[in-house]
Amino acid sequence: MPWISRAVITVGLAILGTVALSLPAGAAAKVGPHQYFTGVINGTDGNTVIPISIQMACFGPLHPGQTGHPLGGQTLAVHQLFPPTTTDGTLGNTGDDSTIDVFFHAPPPGSAPGATSDPTAFTRYDKTKKLPRSLTLPCRGTGTVWFVPIPVVPPSQSATVPVQFVSQP
After folding, report:
1. How far apart are CA 128 and CA 145, in angstroms?
2. Per-chain mean pLDDT for the chain
3. Residue 97 · residue 86 · CB < 8 Å
4. Peptide bond before residue 151 is cis, with ω within 30 degrees of 0
5. Is the pLDDT of residue 22 over 90?
6. What CA dihedral angle connects 35, 114, 75 and 88, to 10 degrees?
7. Rounded CA gap, 111 and 32, in Å?
C-alpha cells in the first residue's frame, strides 16, 4: 500500500502544478472581508518598527515646518497577512469591508470611499500604485501613513506604517 500513497501524492502534485501554471502571472488576490493586512511603501512591508523613507522633492536649506511633494518613482501597496504575525495594533483588519484607502494625515472618522484627494484605494493585494506626487507632506521628519478599510466601521482596523520624510541634499 505505500506505493499507492506515493502515486496519489505524485498525481496530486502534478495537478497542483497544472492549476498553478493556469493562473495569470502576477494575479493579485482581491481584498475581502475579515482579512489581516499591512501597508507597503516603496516595496517595504509596513509591519516594522523602523520608519520607511519617503523621498521628498525639497532641496537646499530647509526651515521648520516646510512642506513639499514626494519625488516620483515611489510606490504604495497593501499585503495580506495570514495568519497574522502580530496583533499589536499596527496590522489592519478589513472587518466587513473590502476596500483599503491610504491617508497621509489622520483619516476622518467614518471615512467613505474617495474621501482622500489622491487615487490610492486598493481592491487587490500586492498591486502597486504610484505614490501621488501631488501630495503636500513635510520635507523632513517622521509621520504615520494609515491604510484604512473603508468605510470605517467596527470591527475593521487600520494598519499604521511609520515613515520618515527625507529631503534631498
Report:
1. 16
2. 79
3. no
4. yes
5. no
6. -40
7. 18
